[in-house]
Structure formats: C-alpha cells, structure tokens
Amino acid sequence: MSQTPDKSCCCCLTRQLNLPSAHLLFWPVFLIGLVADLWSKSAVFNWLSSQSPQRYSIIDGFFQLVIVENRGAAWGIAADKTITLVVISILAFIVIFSMFLFGRKLQMAVVLALALFAAGICGNLYDRLFNDGKVRDFLDFYYKEWHFPAFNIADSMLTVAVFILILMTIFCPKSQQE
Predict the structure, then answer these.
(1) Considering 37, 127, 140, 155, which one is annotated as catalytic?
(2) Catalytic residue at 6?
C-alpha cells in the first residue's frame, strides 16, 4: 500500500529542533567551518609563497590555487573600506548569533545556514583584523583568459548558507518557513 507524502514538511531539513539538538548542530558546523577556513588559508598561502609562480594548477584550464588578497567584500566591492567592512561583519555576526540564541522555532536548515554564515563571517573577519584589512583568497576557477573572482572556504560557506535559505523559500510550504 502506498503512502501519501506528508505535505506539511518539504524535507527533513525543515524539521524543528529542540534547543540541545540545535546547539549540537550549530557549534560543530561553526567550529569545523571556521577551522577549515583559517587552516586552508594559512596552508595554501604558506605553501604557495615558496612557489614560483605563486599558483598551482589542480585541473589545467579550469581550476588552480593562487594567492590573492582582497581589500574589499565580494568581487572587490567596497575596496579599502576596512573599518566599514569590519563593522558590518561584527553587526552581521551579532544578528546571526541573536537569531540562533533567541529564535523560538529553530529548523534544521536554518540552524545549518546560521552556522555556515557565522563561520564564513568569522573567517573573513579574522583576515580583515589580522591581515592588514585584506582577506586571503586562493580558489581560482577559470577558462582561458576569463577568471571567476578568487574566493576562499569562508566565501563558499556564505554562498551555501544563502543557497539553503533560497531553496527553503522556493520549495518549502509557507507554513514551514517561519
């Protein structure tokens, strides 16, 4: 006998979490993400600094590791506005932690997205504070002469967090999006 799918929940990621479960998801994702970002930046920059040229091809014609220091936000927006970017990062960090700590209905996907946001913000904020206002980027996707702007693990976590929230908005019923 076939069962009718439960239309009240679009997937397991919309499941409500109790507070201990939310903390068990948030903190490991946040800490592992932050450590992965900071470690990868340090490892790649230390290694490539000793290379000549300062790049290493992973997939010829498509993907390489490079040394890029970005003085702005995404795609160099607000370049050399370090104080502004630090303040925005701190405010975003406070908002994210407030949403996590004081949110009444914590869905698994939202907790995951908040943890990824927090880790990404902290990773890039660390660079701004301790790398002369510059964020270390090293992932370079390209085709011939065209290069997507270099990015890092923190940027990837921020992108995945936004993607999770967009998917929830598009595919989950309105009653599940609280």
Answers:
(1) 155
(2) no
Q: Distance between CA atoms of 50 and 32, rounded to whole angstroms?
A: 27
Residue spans of the chain under pLDDT 70:
1-12, 173-178
Catalytic choice (37, 127, 137, 140):
137
**Cβ within 8 Å of residue 176, ≥6 positions away:** 8, 9, 10, 14, 107, 168
Where exactly are the structural domains of the chain? 16-172
- pTM for this predicted structure: 0.88
pLDDT in tens, 44-53: 999 999 988 8
Question: Hey, which residues does 63 pair with through a beta bridge?
Answer: 59, 141
Residue tagged 């701190």 (tokens): 90
